[in-house]
Amino acid sequence: MRSNKRYTNTNFTKRVDHEAGRHRPARAPREPAVCKSCGAVYARRRWTDANADRGISEPKHWRPARMTTCPACKQKQCGSPGGYLRVEGSFVIAHREEIEQLLRNEAGRAAMDNPLGCIMNSTEGRDGTFTLATTTEHLAQRLGHALEKAYGGTIDYDFSHENKLARVKWARN
Ligand SMILES: [Zn+2]
Fold first, then answer.
1. How far is the CA of 16 from the centre of ligand 1 (A)?
2. How is 13-78 classified by DSSP, letter by letter?
3. pLDDT tens, position by position, for the chain (173 residues)?
4. In Å, what is the CA distance from 144 to each residue of 17, 38, 94, 156?
5. How many Å apart are CA 62 and CA 31, to the nearest integer?
6. Distance from Cα 49 to the centre of ligand 1, integer Å
């Protein structure tokens, strides 16, 4: 009976090894995955915005999505912005809603090119001034440029190569 037990143990050990081998992590993250914070979807090795049009050809073998946190939300949570956009001037007070709408639209378009770029938060300043923090330096520049294109005004870029931080200021009175 002893020899019989040993045989069982060997068999068991073998099976454990086999299972461990099968569950080795793949090189790319498992797909599809959904960000539990913003709803961004990871499929076909890229992150896309929650509202992005992914076309009608979803894979037939579509599996339940894995819940995770996308790179942009990870950055939001650890709170290190890549850029700031300061918006100021009397024009801003009079057209605040319009400006915010434009910024949201532009950020949405930018997210289709690079889902890692998004607005982290908005801080109110004095006299209707507000400052947006963005995850990437590029998005702060892009948003500032969009304001200038739509409404004129003046724009200042200040880019620190040392810490890859863009400070953009757009103003119109
Ligand atoms: Zn996210």
1. 35
2. HHHHHHHHHHTPPPSSPPSSEEETTT--EEETTEEE-TT----S---TTPPPPEEE--HHHHHHHH
3. 554 544 444 444 444 444 444 444 445 667 888 988 888 888 888 888 877 766 545 555 556 778 888 877 877 776 678 999 999 999 999 999 999 999 999 998 998 888 788 888 899 998 889 999 998 999 999 999 999 999 999 999 998 888 789 999 999 99
4. 56, 24, 18, 9
5. 9
6. 9
